[in-house]
Design goal:
Shape: globular
CATH class of one domain: Alpha Beta
CATH architecture of one domain: 3-Layer(aba) Sandwich
Helix content: 25-40%
Largest sheet: 8 strands, mixed
Bound molecules: aspartic acid, magnesium ion
Number of helices: 13
Number of strands: 18
CATH topology of one domain: Carbamate kinase
Strand content: 25-35%
Strand order of the largest sheet: 3-6-2-1-9-11-12-10
Length: 407
């Protein structure tokens, strides 16, 4: 007998028929003799609708009230799934974050899980009751409902699996696993049977939408075996997130991610002297803007230089505003921004041992006439910033160049 956490995303519970289907999948595991806790998302589209209503009423809404509104989507599905389970003879009870409780930080809208009290749920599970837990939500220190950021029910599921010391966390979604790249762009993308936590973390944070980055971080920290599989084809496929040591053949490149969610800012002719970076990035940090890639050119005359960096496209206006306000301290000549950029990244733990991986990337892009604007690297990834128009071409060419195409 194992203890398992099953998580179902929005498309898996999008209507009543699908909730019935989920109930059957849960029953199957119960019939196999397992203890089961289920984490659910809101029905597909519901969270977007709730967010839109809140914004429509006031773009500068209070974060606590945003959470009070958007957390309701998961409450509905948890209750409905418990009803569906009972209807087919499975003992089940729904739980909201505060009832367990799932304690979070006070950072409303993007709270972090601090603690989950597992004793009470464990008792229920031991009695043979299925626990259906509302994902995405918890309770903050001041006793108000908090939410974990978009896509947060993945994190709820992994955190619950860690707290319950579950044998497995199965994330059921609308794709049958993690692919070498986005199959909508590259038809010959392949499903990965296994992927290392670290690789998955890079993939998720660099644009792959399949799991919330924080859920992967948590899985890695607590060594939770996570499987990603399809609700609609549950017996087929799946990808296992595992320890690096469990992967025998470490490819130089395991996956390719991309994100169009980028904007580039260039400051022309800033003084080339100590303290200038601090005078630029300090105000950005104060404005809550996350800076990603940075390049500084050398100056021809040793006095002035150009500095380029990227921020999230949604944060561009806030970033420009912060820079303009700090203009007297920085002392640049001109400020240029560009929204038409995208970031393409290659990721693989085998990169550590294989020299020349980055060079293959640069050569491949050059052959396609794609200009690289900014480069950033870490031990297991190389990212480049290119014109957005070339994203698909770049991803396809790289997918072939690293032999990732399916036969
Ligand atoms: N319903 C929330 C969202 O759409 C949380 C989740 O589905 O993971 O972001
Ligand atoms: Mg999701």
């Amino acid at each position: 007998m194992s203890k398992i956490v099953m998580k179902f995303g929005g498309t898996s519970v999008a209507d009543i028929a699908r909730i019935r289907n989920v109930a059957k999948l849960v029953k199957r595991e119960v019939d196999r003799g397992h203890q089961v806790a289920v984490v659910v998302s809101a029905m597909a589209g519901e969270t977007n609708k709730l967010v839109a209503w809140t914004r429509e009423l006031s773009p500068l809404h209070d974060a606590r009230e945003y959470d009070a509104v958007v957390a309701t989507g998961e409450q509905v599905t948890a209750g409905l799934l418990a009803v569906a389970l009972s209807a087919i003879g499975v003992t089940a009870r729904s739980w909201q974050g505060w009832q367990i409780p799932i304690r979070t930080s006070a950072r409303y809208c993007s709270a972090r899980i601090v603690e989950i009290e597992a004793a009470f749920l464990n008792e229920r599970l031991a009695q043979g009751q299925v626990a259906v837990v509302a994902g995405f939500q918890g309770i903050a220190p001041d006793n108000r409902i908090s939410t974990l950021g978009r896509g947060g029910s993945d994190t709820s599921a992994v955190a619950l699996a860690a707290a319950l010391k579950a044998d497995r966390c199965d994330i059921y979604t609308d794709v049958d696993g993690v692919y070498t790249t986005d199959p909508r762009i590259v038809s010959r993308a392949r499903r990965l049977h296994k992927i290392a936590y670290e690789e998955m973390m890079e993939l998720a944070s660099l644009g792959a939408k399949v799991l919330q980055t924080r859920s992967v971080e948590m899985a890695m920290a607590h060594r939770v075996p996570v499987r990603v599989l399809s609700t609609f084809d549950a017996d087929n496929g799946g990808t296992l997130l595992c320890d690096e040591d469990d992967i025998v053949e470490k490819n130089p490149v395991t996956g390719i991610a991309y994100t169009r969610d980028e904007a580039k800012i260039t400051l022309l002719k800033v003084p080339d002297q100590p303290g200038v970076a601090a005078s630029i990035f300090g105000p950005l940090e104060d404005a809550g803007v996350n800076v990603d890639m940075i390049v500084q050119n050398i100056s021809e005359d040793g006095r002035r230089t150009d500095l380029t960096f990227t921020v999230g496209r949604a944060e561009l206006d806030r970033a420009l505003d912060a820079i303009r306000k700090a203009a007297p301290q920085i002392g640049y000549k001109d400020l240029i921004s560009d929204k038409g950029v995208a970031k393409v990244s290659i990721i693989g733990i085998g990169m550590r041992a294989h020299p020349g991986v980055a060079q293959t990337m640069f050569k491949t892009l050059a052959e396609k006439g794609i200009n690289i604007q900014v480069i950033s690297t870490s031990e297991i990834k190389v990212s480049v910033l290119i014109a957005e128009d070339y994203v698909e071409l770049a991803v396809r060419a790289l997918h072939s160049a690293y032999d990732l195409d399916a036969a």
